User: What shape does this take?
Amino acid sequence: MRVRRAGDAALLVETGDPHRLDAAVRAAGLPGVVDVVPGERTVLITTDGDPGRLADRVAALEPPPRTAADAPPVEVPVVYDGADLAEVAELTGLSPDEVAERHSAAEYTVAYLGFSPGFGYLTGLPNELRVPRRATPRTSVPAGSVAVAGPYAAVYPSASPGGWRLLGRTGLALWDVTRDPPSLLRPGTRVRFVREAR
Amino acid sequence: MSGDGPVQEALDLAGEAVLEVVRPGPLATVQDLGRPGLAHLGVPGSGAADAPALRLANRLAGNPEDAAGLELTFGGAALRFRRAAWAAATGAPAPVSVDGRAAPFNAPFRVPAGGLVEVGAPARGVRTYVAVRGGLTPEPVLGSRSADLLSGLGPPPLAAGDAVPLGPVTGPGLALEPLRVDVAPVPEPPAEPRLRVLPGPRDDWFAAGALAALTSAVYTVADASNRVGVRFDGPPLDRVRDGELPSEGMVTGALQVPPDGRPILFLADHPTTGGYPVIAVVTTADIPVAAQLRPGTKVRFTTHPR
Assistant: This one.
């Protein structure tokens, strides 16, 4: 673990297990902590207090026994009729049906969120389904679009521009500002895609 | 005539508790202190770009510091008060008038029921704040009334004809009691601003001379600046490491450097995570200065001892 400063009000902690450090920081209830933001290999901790003292406390943390990864996976029902399904099949040398089968057979973990509220970057995508983003992003991708790009899978939580390849759609609301918490996904959440008939 | 007797005040307060936007100017949004604590869900902090200016406006208007007010970008707004109220304007200094008569800046002023408040173009700075006693009370989203222009959370930017609800003025008999606050002494935004920075967290992704270049050259604020970030033109900051940085959390004040080498300084509506390395972070104290930088302004960055 290496603790870097990110200005005078935040620490950027490099760690092999961001989700466990995230859980440890939250469980410890450290004074002055504002935001705890896991990244791919880091946890950003912002503070309204003294970052030096916080750095000492973070370095002394014991990881808690349980994390979100120990909870049962969120099941996302998917109809595989996405606009890019045929193209992804072509790029991967698989049939559209095989793309859907392999995508729904894997188990995923939310590495971190970003891009838009509730947008989780899911690791666990089978290697053979790795395809680059579209050369030209769409100006609007509908909410609930199930997509892949590079090593990640995702579900668009709300309508937004986007360049990921669309495999299908879900009716599950991943983001709802009237719900607490508003996001179905958080860092460390496990996810399964469940294939549905159209 | 706007009488000051109790009968007149009762009539004033009976007016509809809304602020009518006659003209929003180039960009007018509702802002409070934002949505801290939700960044791990991809929710930007948002809130007033120049938070100390909003806090001051609220104090002057007799509100809690976290009440929602207006953030005007380059002024140019006209607001009709349906109810009498105390108000205050802070931030980028702009001419303010009530029914055509000059009103003070950085000080409370009274608006009669039906009064028209006009805010002209600021001579310096970008964002002028207007707080109204009782606060603006559009429906909060995730605990905040701030308009987040990156994610679209909160009330959309104001348009002519919008009616923004005002909160109740609490305390019997205190409603329109004159506020006992002196004019707040506020320095003008500097003509040649210096922003103090702390190196890192990814200064090791840059060439040895990059930090020195950042802190010795003059950078010019580019037109494409907004609530997400301030863009700069100037000597590009060269990287020594290729490829993408694994995405990591981003802070307000971060100087993120995309492949073209020109830094972007993150403001209130910045994305929560990003993959471009951050060479340095502007100190918390200087973020309000950054939030008031106009396109074309020449800026120097200086290293701040830790």
